[in-house]
């Protein structure tokens, strides 16, 4: 008789634990659904990027197949969301000419950007004796002769969105900024020191997340 009572109590205990487990699971699912609904309603907007200026220190061909370039860019990032913050976990910048990378990647320190906040970064981009195709050398000389070199400043990295205490998974971000730099036209820029010219660009960048 005692054995039967013991088995009965064990079954009741197992059923109670199952009910508690199911209740916790249902609660977690409900919380997850609430977060997803809020997230869907908020619909986080990707950040906006603008390239403000480029300060040119060096840009010259050292041989028919090598390019030296050193310049500093100023890029503004704005978080357009009302209640969503952005974590920039990783962001690197570099310059390209006709789809060929001409500078080494420069890392931008990880940062958090609150809603409606604006961040300004000014990385140095350097490409010492970068090998390039001969046809690109010809194109660069032609561009300089015409008074403007078109570069594309790229920024690649990873970010996360934050709402309250909820932080999303990681998203990849790719930024392309067209930079028409009037190299050779000294009147188009401002000398900040000898042989160093700052060119104002202020152009919106293409952003994909």
Automatic annotation (TrEMBL):
Residue span(s) of domain Late embryogenesis abundant protein LEA-2 subgroup: 74-178
GO aspect biological process, one term: defense response to other organism
Keyword tags: Membrane, Transmembrane, Transmembrane helix
GO CC field: plasma membrane; plasmodesma
Transmembrane among keywords: yes
Main location class: membrane
Keyword Membrane assigned: yes
Topology in membrane: Single-pass membrane protein
InterPro entries: LEA_2, NDR1-like
Localization annotation: Membrane
Listed name of the protein: Late embryogenesis abundant protein LEA-2 subgroup domain-containing protein
């Amino acid at each position: 008789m005692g054995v039967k009572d013991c088995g009965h109590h064990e079954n009741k205990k197992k059923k109670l634990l199952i009910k508690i487990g199911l209740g916790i699971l249902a609660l977690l699912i409900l919380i997850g659904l609430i977060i997803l609904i809020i997230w869907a309603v908020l619909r986080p907007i990707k950040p906006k990027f603008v390239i403000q200026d480029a300060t040119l220190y060096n840009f010259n061909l050292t041989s028919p197949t090598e390019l030296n370039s050193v310049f500093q860019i100023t890029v503004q990032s704005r978080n357009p969301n009302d209640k969503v913050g952005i974590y920039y976990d990783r962001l690197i910048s570099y310059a390209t000419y006709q789809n060929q990378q001409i500078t080494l990647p420069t890392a931008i320190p990880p940062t958090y950007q609150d809603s409606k906040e604006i961040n300004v970064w000014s990385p140095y981009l350097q490409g010492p004796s970068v090998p390039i195709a001969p046809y690109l050398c010809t194109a660069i000389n032609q561009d300089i002769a015409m008074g403007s070199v078109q570069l594309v400043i790229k920024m690649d990295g990873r970010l996360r969105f934050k709402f309250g205490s909820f932080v999303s998974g990681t998203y990849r971000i790719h930024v392309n900024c067209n930079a028409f730099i009037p190299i050779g036209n000294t009147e188009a820029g401002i000398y900040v020191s000898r042989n160093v010219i700052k060119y104002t660009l202020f152009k919106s960048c293409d952003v994909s997340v």
